[in-house]
Each structure stands twice: as structure tokens, then as C-alpha cells.
Amino acid sequence: MHRWIQGFFLAGVVLLSISCDWTERESPEPMNPRFSPLQVGRFWVYEVEQREYFGEADFEDSHFFYRDQITEELTNAQGQPVYRVVRQRSVDRQQWDNELAYSLRMDESRLVRWMNNSQHILLIYPVQPLRQWDANLFNPTGPEIFAIERIGSHAMGERVFPSAVLVRHMEDDDFITFRDNRYEVYAENVGLVESYSEVFTYCSRSACLGQQIIQAGRFIHLKLSTHGIF
Predict the structure, then answer these.
(1) Torsions phi, psi for 179 (to 5 deg)
(2) What does DSSP assign to residue 108?
(3) Any idea of the CA torsion for 29, 222, 122, 28, to the nearest 10 degrees?
(4) Its domain of life (predicted)?
């Protein structure tokens, strides 16, 4: 190959590489991404409906409220901001009791929540339809695939969020032994507005096999009531 042709070819490869790299990186999300604003003082109040199953026809319903508030900003060993969130629980929105604490952080383009000694990647930016990732990447357990199912407006009763993303955690039901249906919704400039989870095991004895009689499990549904900054 002639040297000038070889040089032209290499220049084209470099240019193509730069062009592809630019395509991947155009319109980068800021470190405080639009669907997960992180700031000390931010709070979210959720109305919660819950049903816990302890056996066949044995369950307990409860209705209460969660208030999640970012109380402080710390720095981890990698120099990343880590936001401590305190979750409180109330039945009347007057008296609040501490429930637990967890943390949120941006790890490069990933929103990570550390709760109950496990980390989950909740979102990856930029947000794109059908994008998938291993939410369990930072845990020693097996992979758990989350996927962006829908981007657009999201209605919750009479309330509509014009720009939101629905992240599907799981949607599986064999109608014989188990049901696992979980998702979360994040709204632009708001954060988490809805969390839905129903994880059941069905009675698998021969007398009730295939009848979808719930043996054990829990249903819990969080819906945003109000939010703001203290």
C-alpha cells in the first residue's frame, strides 16, 4: 500500500473513531441528572398501601406514609458525592418515626441506591427507550436486569407528570408457583414518584396447584403525595 494512501486510510479511521465517540457522548447528562435530583434538604412524601401474606387467606393490610429526606452530603473513597437519605414512617403525617437510612449517589452515569446492605443501579444516563443494565452489578449475587419500559407522561390518579421514565425491574408470573411484578417511575426534576412491588408464592400442593392461591409474599405500592426542599 502506498504511504500516502496508508496515511489517508489511518486518518479516516481516526476521524471515524472520533465521530463514533462523539455520537456516544453527545448531549451528556449532568452529574445531577434530571430524573434524580440530589440535593441536601430535598424530601419526598409517599402514600403507601401494603398487604403482607402469611398463609392461605391470612394477610394483613396497612396504610401509612413514608417521608424520605436527604439529610447530608458525604464523599466516598472515590471522591464521589454520597447523599444520606433518612426514611420516616407515619400513619397521620403528624408524628414521624425513623424507619431506616439509605444512600444515593451518582457513579459516573449510574444512579445507585445503597439500602439494607445491598446496592442497586436504579437508572443509567442518558435515559433511552428499552435500555437494559444489571442492577446487581455491585453485589456478589447474580445479575438482575432492569429495563427502561417507557419514557413520556405518567398519570397517577388525577396527577400527571409530563416527563417521566418507567423502569421495569421484573414482570413474571407462571400462574402456578410465583408472581414477581415490580417497577419504579421517576419524573423529571422530581425523582421517584411511584414504586410498585408484588412478589408472591402460590400454593403448590396438589389440592390447590394452579389456582393462584397466595401462600406468602408482599404487595407494596408507594405513590408520591408531595415533595419539596426544606
Answers:
(1) -140, 135
(2) T
(3) -10
(4) Bacteria
Question: What is the Cα–Cα distance from 78 to 105, expressed in whole angstroms?
Answer: 11
Record the cell numbers describing residue 80, joined without a space: 464521589
The residue with cell 412478589 is 199
Q: Is the peptide bond before 30 cis (omega within 30 degrees of 0)?
A: no
Q: Which residues pair with 182 in a beta bridge?
A: 170, 197
Specify the residue for cell string 397521620.
92
Write the CB contacts of 177 (distance below 8 Å, at least 6 apart in sequence): 201, 202, 204
Structure confidence by residue, pLDDT tens digits, 132-158: 999 999 999 999 999 999 999 999 989
Buried b (16+ CB within 10 A) or exposed e, 14-30: eeeeeeeeeeeeeeebe
Instruction: Give the whole-angstrom CA distance, residue 211 versus residue 224.
Output: 34
Phi-psi region of 117 (alpha: psi -120 to 50; beta: other; left: phi over 0): left
- pTM for the structure as a whole: 0.84
Task: Name the grid cell of 11.
Answer: 486518518
Alpha carbons within 13 A on the beta-carbon side of 16: 6
CB 9 within 8 Å of CB 15: no
Which tens digits make up the pLDDT trace of 28-60? 444 448 999 999 999 999 999 999 999 888 999
* H or E segment and range at residue 103: strand 97-107
Asked whether the beta carbons of 186 and 157 are under 8 A apart, the reply is no
CB of 205 within 8 A of CB of 213?
Answer: no
Q: Under 8 Å CB-to-CB from 82, ≥6 apart: which residues?
A: 73, 74, 75, 76, 103, 104, 105
Could you give the residue ranges of the DSSP H alpha helices within 60-191?
none
